[in-house]
From TrEMBL:
It catalyses: 6-phospho-D-gluconate = 2-dehydro-3-deoxy-6-phospho-D-gluconate + H2O. Coiled coil: none annotated. It comes from Sphingomonas lycopersici. The gene is edd. One of its GO terms (cellular component) is cytosol. GO terms for biological process: D-gluconate metabolic process; Entner-Doudoroff pathway through 6-phosphogluconate. Residues 66-377 form the Dihydroxy-acid/6-phosphogluconate dehydratase N-terminal domain. Pathway: Carbohydrate metabolism; Entner-Doudoroff pathway. Catalyzes the dehydration of 6-phospho-D-gluconate to 2-dehydro-3-deoxy-6-phospho-D-gluconate. This is Phosphogluconate dehydratase. Belongs to the IlvD/Edd family. [4Fe-4S] cluster binds at C153, C220.
Length: 601
């Protein structure tokens, strides 16, 4: 094992010793005092069986596992529209395995791509907590011996896992749907966005460009949060191996889903291979998730999601762990925005099987974790042979501009940094930023909302070296929205030769790239975080080489300042309903979760 990965793993195990022991005790109590079908009353069971008369006899005989399906289906998300017929197919495939299946419940699944830049985006992060609660409700009936979790996109997978891990005595698998076929290349799409930001493209041209990029069923094809979720499930062993990036509507995709149903049906405590999800998601699996994130240049949103998932399993990982791992884990993939290729080209070049094989061989992944999707973590690629599912070695990289072996990595480190200084702690992703942009020192221009930034850009007020500071965007202030609308104008300013950076206590899109962004600044402005002390004209230095984030203000003056007044809490669009979550949320480094904080986890 790489010594840094081993040391970080040991650090997490030691830090989590008490909380993990409490969690495992919870699993033991749930297993030993199981509220399940043999112990439920007859009226309770009759209610549970009434909706599935075709399986009632098998359920009554308690002949095999009853699998709960928790689904994020809706047809407003292209990635989740594929789930429309999954429940009926899963029921058929469950019968093949001597099991039954029922839809236990649905969870909300919003699309950040639809809400970016608008009021609905302020519900996005806390939709993760809502999904976790909905998952718990779905699994609370005590009528399931295992579960399949149908979800893909940004907050959905973390939310499903956070809820599912509180039922960690049950075996479970995540079932992906795959990416849409490639459309307009991501780089071409970004170019039209920048042209629109400068008035050089019409709204009709922009809409046509966006529709050409986002055109069918499946995940968006850039390597943002949704596809980073799929990578993580692979390295954690919670998928059927190689399932992440197979396109929807193909025979291979169908057979991978069928294999997931058969697999989970064999993992219950009545068999000889009991693999509860709470045992599978241990400290080593969490380290695998962090290593995979760094090795592939994944979404910065997972610096929130991985700590939250870990906490739900009694595990504590912090940004220092990510920082140490980033210094040791090589970057072996370049997928947009860290390169020109999309996830379909990444899959064709070898995909996750290649990544897993290389990282295990290099000593960066824990290959001996308890996996749910297969006997062990494997770097084998799925294929069809005479219509039967099989797995093969992925061979050499199909394109070393996209995917490289550890021995020829794009970079010796993972490209994420933790920044510290008098402004607070923040994260920065530099894997897509040119090295000559890793240090920016410039006067600050301070805003309370991204719309104010866009207006200032349109007025020409940012045509200079500038550090754009957007405060009061943290979880307690307004739910920590992504500030993705800022990517085109800041990119335009950088293209014009200015030294530009963003500093915010909010989030940036998991697909953002070339502009240096210090994000998730903690403590956040609401409540007195130092980002609220920055004033227009202060010189701010973002140094991703040294790992610092400083306002170059006289120390005595800095300490004498009081935070700028917080804007009034916004209402409408349902935002007022999430006031309880905002008030209870903890800091970004812990995962920015209200429900985990309220539960004392």
């Amino acid at each position: 094992m790489n010594p840094v990965v081993a040391a970080v793993t040991d650090r997490i195990i030691e830090r989590s010793r008490e909380s993990r022991a409490r969690y495992l005790s919870l699993l033991d109590r749930a297993r030993d005092g199981w509220i399940g079908r043999p112990s439920l009353g007859c009226a309770n069971l009759a209610h549970a069986y009434a909706g599935t008369p075709e399986d009632r006899a098998a359920m009554k005989a308690d002949a095999g596992m009853n699998i709960g399906i928790v689904t994020a289906y809706n047809d407003m998300l292209s990635a989740h529209a594929v789930y429309y017929r999954y429940p009926e197919l899963i029921k058929l495939w469950a019968r093949e395995a001597g099991a039954t299946a029922q839809v236990a419940g649905g969870v909300p699944a919003m699309c950040d791509g639809v809400t970016q830049g608008y009021a609905g985006m302020e519900l996005s992060l806390f939709s993760r907590d809502t999904i976790a609660l909905a998952t718990a409700v779905a699994l609370s009936h005590g009528t399931f011996e295992g579960a399949l979790l149908l979800g893909i996109c940004d907050k959905i997978v973390p939310g499903l896992l956070m809820g599912a891990l509180r039922f960690g005595h049950l075996p479970m698998l995540l079932v992906p749907g795959g990416p849409m076929p490639s459309g307009l290349p991501n780089k071409a799409k970004a170019a039209v966005r920048e042209r629109f930001a400068t008035g050089e493209a019409t709204r009709e041209e922009l809409l046509d460009s966006e529709i050409a990029a986002y055109h069918g069923h499946g995940t968006c094809t850039f390597y943002g949060t949704a596809n980073t979720n799929q990578m993580m499930m692979e390295v954690m062993g919670l998928h059927i191996p190689g399932a992440a990036f197979v396109n929807p509507g193909t025979k291979l995709r169908q057979e991978l889903t069928r294999a997931a149903v058969h697999r989970v049906a064999g993992l219950g405590w009545r068999g000889e291979d009991y693999r509860p999800i709470g045992q599978c998601v241990d400290e080593r699996a969490i380290v695998n998730a962090a290593v995979g994130l760094l090795a592939t240049g994944g979404s910065t949103n997972h610096l929130l999601h991985v700590p939250a998932i870990a906490r739900a399993a009694g595990i504590v990982i912090d940004w220092e762990d990510f920082d140490r791992l980033s210094g040791a884990v090589p970057l072996i993939a370049r997928v947009y925005p860290n390169g020109a290729a999309d996830v379909n080209a990444f899959e064709e070049a070898g995909g996750m099987p290649f990544v897993i094989r290389e990282l295990i061989a290099g000593g960066y992944l824990h290959g001996d974790i308890l996996t749910a999707g297969a006997e062990t973590l494997t770097g084998l690629k799925p294929a069809l042979e005479n219509d039967a599912l099989t797995w093969r070695d992925p061979g050499a990289s199909g394109d070393e501009a996209i995917l490289r072996p550890v021995s020829a990595a794009f970079s010796p480190d993972g490209g994420m940094r933790i920044l510290t200084g008098n402004i607070g702690r923040a994260c920065i992703k530099v894997s897509a930023v040119e090295p000559d942009r890793w240090i920016v020192e410039a006067p600050a221009r301070v805003f309370n909302d991204q719309s104010e930034v866009l207006d200032a850009f349109k007025r020409g007020e940012l045509e200079r070296d500038v550090v754009v500071v957007v405060r009061y965007q943290g979880p307690r202030a307004n739910g920590m929205p992504e500030l993705h609308k800022l990517t085109p104008p800041l990119g335009v300013l950088q293209n014009r030769g200015f030294r530009v950076a963003l500093v915010t206590d909010g989030r940036m899109s998991g697909a953002s790239g070339k502009v240096p962004c210090a994000i998730h600044v903690s403590p956040e402005a609401l409540g007195g975080g130092a980002i609220g002390l920055i004033r227009d004209g202060d010189i701010v230095r973002l140094d991703a080489v040294a790992g610092t984030l400083e306002a170059l203000v006289d120390g005595a003056e800095w300490l004498a300042r009081t935070p700028a007044p917080a804007p009034a809490a916004a209402d409408g669009f349902g935002r007022e309903l999430f006031g309880l979550f905002r008030g209870a949320a903890d800091e970004a480094e812990k995962g920015a979760s209200a429900i985990l904080a309220s539960a004392g986890l």
